[in-house]
TrEMBL record:
SUPFAM superfamilies assigned to the protein according to its UniProt record, in alphabetical order: Trypsin-like serine proteases
Subcellular compartments: Secreted
UniProt record similarity statement: Belongs to the peptidase S1 family.
Domain of life: Eukaryota
The protein's name in its UniProt record: Inactive serine protease 35
rRNA-binding in keyword set: no
Keyword annotations from UniProtKB, A to Z: Glycoprotein, Secreted, Serine protease homolog, Signal
PANTHER family for the chain: INACTIVE SERINE PROTEASE 35 (PTHR15462:SF17), SERINE PROTEASE (PTHR15462)
Signal as UniProt keyword: yes
Peptidase S1 domain ranges (all copies): 126-262
GO MF assignments: serine-type endopeptidase activity
Organism expressing this protein natively: Serinus canaria (Island canary)
Length: 356
């Protein structure tokens, strides 16, 4: 229904909002746009973005802000592009400010102390859940399978805030498979089965001109594959706060550039948070950006615990603090609104998107 450019179609989507006791109706309209130029350079490390101190000073988004920030662009494999406007109705924004806990500043580094990353060589782990959900993006990033046809990754892997990056016009996703030595055994190094991307969704909040600058809060994107895969994927969850985080540890796997051809896994605790971002010091290098961060969450109304994606790794980011450049490893939290948006991108309806 949304594939008719220029035809506005209102569709009500009930979603949940933090500290809110009722459902929210979202109506969307889709319009055609000019085709992108696809001339931007891929940049895996971002500068001059809003950091911890900046986040503390940000006002809570108004309904008008949410309408603009959660609107999104869709680019199709033939180069056509649409804009879908989102109108959030009846939401009650949380009046609490973007709070974080004061922490001492850290010096520049992406590996903090002893390198605590693990390269996954054993085929029994590499080709099984949860490690087999990690994918490689042809622009140089990582991602994670979130449905039989969809991949979650970082927006900056596809768009620099002004234009789509070179290579994103013919975007591909690499699903892991292990190389064979010829005698039926594996050498522990993954190879990739590449599949074309049918369409991409990026929230408008990521684009410069909407926020005035790149906004890490919206550094996420969903890719729809041209053909479905038959692998197990990981479901979405809503990000808990640090105090409510089971086990206090997050996990993610990706394809770090300094370990070419290897799947790299790591885990660590969250050091700080804002309403939309996690600040952590999981050891990571460029190439792992876009990885899905997950942990075990309790299933609603069940005793069962399940691994779910609660954030997207945005990467090693430079931010201005007290006039100086400092660095952090940052992840974009999946809030209830973002959960509803990503879930709608995946399912095309709201039936499966009312709970996280």
């Amino acid at each position: 229904r949304r594939g008719i450019p220029g035809c506005p179609i209102p569709i009500p989507i009930p979603i949940l909002y933090p500290r809110q006791t009722h459902l929210v109706s979202v109506r969307i309209r889709t319009f055609s746009l000019d085709s992108p130029k696809f001339e931007a350079k891929t940049k895996l490390e971002l500068n001059s973005v809003c950091g911890i101190e900046c986040q503390r000073k940000l006002p809570v988004p108004s309904l008008s802000d949410l309408k603009s920030l959660l609107s999104y662009e869709t680019v199709f494999e033939n180069g056509t592009r649409t804009l879908t406007e989102v109108n959030v109705l009846g939401a009650v924004p949380d009046p609490a400010a973007n709070t974080t806990t004061q922490r001492p500043l850290r010096k520049k580094r992406q590996i903090y102390g002893t390198d605590s990353r693990f390269s996954i060589y054993d085929k029994r782990f590499m080709t099984n859940f949860p490690f087999n959900t990690a994918v490689k993006i042809s622009t140089g990033c990582s991602g994670i399978l979130v449905s039989p046809k969809h991949v979650l990754t970082a927006a900056h892997c596809l768009h620099n805030g002004k234009d789509y990056v070179k290579g994103s016009k013919r975007l591909r996703v690499g699903l892991m498979k292990t190389k064979s030595r010829g005698n039926g055994t594996s050498d522990g190094m993954p190879s990739f089965q590449w599949t074309r991307v049918k369409s991409t969704h990026i929230p408008k909040g990521w684009f410069k001109g909407v926020s005035g600058d790149i906004a890490l809060d919206y550094d996420y994107a969903v890719l729809e594959l041209k053909r479905p895969h038959k692998r197990k994927y990981m479901e979405l969850g809503i990000s808990p706060t640090i105090k409510m985080m089971p086990g206090s540890m997050i996990h993610f796997s990706g394809f770090d550039n300094d370990r070419s051809g290897q799947l790299v896994y790591r885990f660590c605790s969250i050091s700080d948070e804002s309403n939309d971002l996690f600040y952590q010091y999981c050891d990571a290098e460029p190439g792992s950006t876009g990885s899905g961060i997950y942990l075990r969450l309790k299933e609603p109304n069940k005793k069962k615990w399940k691994r779910k994606i609660i954030a997207v790794y945005s990467g090693h980011q430079w931010v201005d603090i007290n006039g100086e450049q400092q660095d952090y490893n940052v992840a974009v939290r999946i809030t209830p609104l973002k959960y509803a948006q990503i879930c709608f991108w995946i399912h095309g309806n709201d039936e499966n998107c009312t709970q996280g």
